[in-house]
Amino acid sequence: MRDRYGWGLIILHWLALMLIVAAFGLGQYLEDLPLSPTKLKLYSWHKWLGITVLLLLPLRMLLRALERLDHAQGLTPLEAQVSRLVHGMLYLLMLAVPLTGWLHSSAAGFPVVWLGILPLPDLVDKDKALAELFAELHRGGVNLLAILVLLHAAAAIYHHHVRRDGVLTRMAPWARKKT
User: Fold this and answer.
1) Contact (Cβ atoms closer than 8 angstroms) between residue 178 and residue 164
2) What's the rounded Cα separation, in Å, for the pair 120 and 129?
3) Is residue 85 part of a domain?
4) How far apart, in whole angstroms, are the C-alpha atoms of residue 156 and residue 151?
5) Do 80 and 72 meet the contact criterion of CB atoms below 8 Å apart?
6) Are 145 and 20 in contact (CB under 8 A)?
7) Counted domains in the chain
8) How does residue 177 score in pLDDT terms, banded at 50, 70 and 90?
9) Residue 71: pLDDT above 80?
10) Range of the domain at 104
């Protein structure tokens, strides 16, 4: 049994965080931006970030499933249950948020072209009411994802600075274990 995650999972973890934070920040910025070529370009970037999170998710889930680390090591039974629940919800939202965004784009009649190169198929036909529904689902998912990411980070910081149990160093091996 190892005492930290493998480098592949560590890299995907931090890459996903950077992509999610960038997509979130860009999405927030776009909310009040007037319609312009710049706004359309930034929306494309926002979509690229989300689709990249979605495309990396199966690899991340595979690496997590193959990981030979006791995910509950150092946790109380309640903490282990909460950890499983939060991680499950994070993975579900890393699937649902980009998918609802893609569904919204499809229903609104705006194609998704990943990295400006690969046109992705529309998931539904153009439908204004459906576009509004998917936009709301996307916003709700984004908000829930943001809350869970912050709780996840707070728990890692708590384990590192208060419990001093090495939980953070499993995913951030550059952080020294506190004694």
Assistant:
1) yes
2) 22
3) yes
4) 9
5) yes
6) yes
7) 1
8) low
9) no
10) 7-171
Spell out where 55-142 has E strands.
112-114, 118-120
The pair of structure tokens assigned to 9 is 């999972």
- Is 57 part of a structural domain of the chain? yes
Q: What is the pLDDT of residues 45-54, one digit of tens each?
A: 999 999 999 9
Strand, coil or helix: 90: helix
Distance, CA of 131 to CA of 129 (rounded, Å): 5
Distance in angstroms (rounded) separating the CA atoms of residues 157 and 17: 16
CB atoms within 10 A of CB 106: 22
CA dist list (Å): 31 to 40, 42, 61, 126:
12, 11, 31, 22
Q: Are 26 and 49 in contact (CB under 8 A)?
A: yes
With tokens 């020294």, the residue in question is: 176
| Stated pTM of the model | 0.92
What's residue 57's pLDDT? 97
